Amino acid sequence: MSAPLPKATDQVRPATAHDVVAVQALLREAALPLDGVPNDLADFLVAERDGAVVAAIGLERYGRHGLLRSAVVHPSLRGSGIGDALVTELLAHARRSGLVDLTLLTTTAAAWFPRFGFATVTRDEVPSAVHASAEFQGACPASATVMLRAL
Q: What integer is the mean pLDDT of 23-40?
């Protein structure tokens, strides 16, 4: 499971429990919530550059619906294509897993996600199962933009 990245030594791979500290550090640095991030990073992907974790993205499952969460790229590598590769691979992973749609909440990237087919929706338009997530229960502010993409 790898997607092409801008530098030959970059790779996207499934996260492991060994990546927890690096992923949490990236999330803290970007002021993203840690609530609900599993210690084993199940359904998370990471991007490595020269052996170091430099980006991450996660998927939470709620029946046949998913929540894209914790999309983060090290500040020095934003705009390099690593984030695009992570989202593309996560979408493929979600489709292979049988999910029918993905929801996300964002306070900073509402203009970035439409390139992947996400559209802004109201909270009421999100599948009710996804409302049980930590992000909907308060980890993300009520002012966050809500986006949805059919798979």
A: 91
pLDDT digits (tens, 9 = 90+) for 34-86: 888 888 899 999 999 988 999 999 999 999 999 999 999 999 998 889 999 99
**Are the C-beta atoms of 144 and 105 separated by less than 8 Å?**
yes
Residues in the chain, how many? 151
Whether 58 contacts 93, CB under 8 Å: no
2: Cβ contacts below 8 Å, ≥ 6 apart: 11, 12, 13, 89
Q: Tell me whether strands 52-62 and 44-49 are parallel, antiparallel or unpaired.
A: antiparallel
Decide if 46 contacts 81 (C-beta within 8 A).
Answer: no
- Using alpha carbons, select from 45, 54, 47 the residue that is nearest to residue 11: 47
